[in-house]
Amino acid sequence: MLRSKIKLNGWKGKRREENMKIYNPVLDDYVEIKRPLKKIVSLDPATTETLFFLGLGDKIIATDAFSYRPEEARKLPKIGSYTHVNLDFLEENRPDLIFSTMGAQKDLTKKLINLGFTVYPMQVATSVSKIIDNVIIIAEVVDRKNEGRELVNMLRKKIAENYNPGNIKVYVEFDLGGPITIGFPSHVSDAISIVGGKNIFDDKDEAYFTPEDKEILNRNPDLFIYEPKRLTAYEKERFLKKMEERGLQQFRARLVFTKGDYLAHMGPSFILDSIPWLRSLFTSPNR
Predict the structure, then answer these.
(1) Distance CA 265, CA 263 (A)
(2) Which residues pair with 173 in a beta bridge?
(3) Secondary element (H or E) of residue 238
């Protein structure tokens, strides 16, 4: 549960300014958040999407290069990635708040805090429930609590609509410069279990790792899902050839492509769009 407390900064005439100190579990400390927020920078695609869902798209002055959900986010200035950011932009615009994420942005987060910026790092979602939890956290940080509750209720409803007990064996592979798959502590593995599947590597404690092709063969998935960086005809052909080179051609008839950055995304649309898509794979007449 989030812990928060108010710091009173004094009076301006009859109007009192209030800054909120909100606990951050990543930092194990309180972050003082300006009220009201006027300028937000989001360096985390999931947070960017959530902010738009909460009605704060007009407060976002810049994002990372991978924040393109919803469509309006594409139009915002792109000032960084997971490992770097345009410090000149931040110094010039002095955002009230910067959202970051952990993992690859751990060092960047520390750097921004040391430079005096107000940064609220978000935890990486290791389950579908954590995606919802992050919505609640963001809603409190930006003071959109009612909107946050409404969004969370919508997400819970969508999960309930797509719950489908089953045990179809599933293998998921991402193109991250090489084959990467998922273990137990990942939002994708959790989602697969919700909609009627079983990740063949659900016994692994690593969220993301490079699989052994012989292990894929031994575990013999009923469904093989491949997520490229971006789906094109060339990418389809390239991967089919790669499967043959790896000795995985027996799974061609079980292969399904995503459009790219679809299952990897950790924002609300993963629950609203990706989970129903996953369930459709397990409930199709051909299965």
Answers:
(1) 5
(2) 226
(3) helix 233-245
Long-range contacts, 66-70 (Cβ 8 Å, 24+): 66/261, 67/42, 69/45, 69/265, 69/267, 69/269
Distance CA 194, CA 181 (A): 18
Rounded CA-CA distance 69/42 in Å is: 12
Give CA angle at 125 (120, 130), nearest 5°: 95
**Contacting residues for 37 by C-beta, under 8 A, at least 6 apart:** 56, 59, 96, 97, 142, 143
pLDDT of 8 higher than 90: no
| Predicted confidence (pLDDT) per residue in 84-111, tens digit | 999 999 999 999 999 999 888 999 999 9
Place of tokens 């429930």: 129
**Which H or E run includes 155?**
helix 145-161
**What does DSSP say about strands 15-24 and 29-33: parallel, antiparallel, or unpaired?**
antiparallel
Q: How far apart are CA 12 and CA 119, in angstroms?
A: 26
On whether the pTM is more than 0.85, the answer is yes
Q: In the numeric block, which tokens belong to residue 64?
A: 């990372």
Q: Which two tokens stand for residue 140?
A: 């409190």
Closest CA to 192 of 218, 215, 171: 171
Q: How sure is the predictor about 133, in pLDDT bands with cuts at 50, 70 and 90? A: very high
Q: What is the CA radius of gyration of the chain?
A: 21
207 vs 182: CA distance, rounded Å: 5
**Measured between alpha carbons, how far apart are the two ends of the chain, in Å?**
42
Please check whether residue 137 is in contact with residue 122, taking contact to mean a CB–CB distance below 8 angstroms: yes
